[in-house]
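subagent[fold] <- orchestrator: predict structure for attached chain, return tokens only, no commentary.
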Amino acid sequence: MDIYEDERTVSRTDLAAWLRQVASQLESGQVFYGAAGAITVADEVRCELEIEQEGADEFSIEIEFSWVNPKAEPVKAEPVTAAAAGADGADETAGSTGD
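subagent[fold] -> orchestrator:
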């Protein structure tokens, strides 16, 4: 699920300034995006650098960071039983006319 994406053409100087800004935010532990968005960055981050030649005269550099939120707790799935479906165990949608 994408949270935010921004794509634009900028000068090399502006790109370097933006990367310095992102680096500074990473050091602080929070990266800001969009009008009012922010995401907390974990203390340990997996990083990937990929450099590709996509044609005779076209190159790309992709930088990717990923991490697991250490505060996130896994959701425990509850088993579905007849008692959980209803007091008499009947499917409440059975016989419904779709009204």
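orchestrator: received. Logging for downstream: Residues 1-70 form one domain. The longest helix spans residues 12-28.
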